[in-house]
């Protein structure tokens, strides 16, 4: 990654729940060589989304472009609410602007109890088919990568981050005031954040674009890396301009 100047926009990649750098490993080659960037892990170090966003903004001064997947997209939207003058571009992948509904809150609360009781593997095992399209589910390496980042996070981080997601604010209230270039991406077959969630975000943000990936589920950066990279380059061109990539 590059070293930012005080006036240069820094790209921050925001992983989803329990994920770290590995979520974006296939995207690094698509990033321009002259663009400073970093992968944030504030979701492992702060108790709720507003605090995560404040910490993110404190740790990365200056103008920012935020690219967030799932929970990372929720964090990106909250950072844009807190500091709209600093967020120069938004890329939102497979995420949801709505607050938690009662049905999901009950399911997530039960999962949190099981995480803290040590009975967490069956919960994740049941979640794997929801995370991937059937094409991705048929690839053992992708499923193994999924289990690897879940196991690396551990049950307490899973519990805390699920609690943060349950308590997330309603981002729909401020999205109509977003003025930066915004591009939304979603797998057409995403079962965890259905396409309607991305359609709603794109409809709320003035001028936002929406792209959908066929035969793709929630783990779109792994399931369709080449398509995601093409989309990422188009989004980068909106605010950074065409540039030589790092690889």
Descriptive notes:
- 44% of the residues lie in helices and 13% in strands.
- The chain is an alpha/beta fold and 247 residues long.
- The longest helix is centred in the middle third of the chain and has 16 residues.
- The protein starts with 9 loop residues before the first strand and ends in an 8-residue tail after the last helix.
- The model has no long low-confidence stretch (mean pLDDT 95).
Brief description of this entry?
With 247 residues, this protein is α/β, with parallel strands linked by helices. It is built from ten helices and six strands.
Structural class: alpha/beta
Arithmetic mean pLDDT = 95
Order of helices and strands: EEHEHEHHHHHEHEHH
Taking Cα atoms only, what radius of gyration do you get, to the nearest Å?
A: 17 Å
- Report the sheet-strand fraction: 5-15%
Largest sheet: 6 strands, parallel
Q: Total helix count?
A: 10
Q: Percent helix among the residues?
A: 40-55%
Query: Low-confidence stretches at least 5 residues in length (pLDDT < 50)?
Result: none
The global form is globular
Strands in their spatial order, largest beta sheet: 2-1-3-4-5-6
How many β-strand runs?
6
Distance between the termini: 12 Å
Secondary structure blueprint with pairings:
Blueprint lengths: L9 E5 L22 E3 L9 H11 L4 E6 L1 H12 L4 E7 L8 H16 L3 H11 L2 H4 L2 H14 L1 H12 L15 E6 L7 H10 L4 E5 L6 H4 L1 H15 L8
Parallel strand pairs: 1-2, 1-3, 3-4, 4-5, 5-6
Helix pairs in contact: 1-2, 3-7
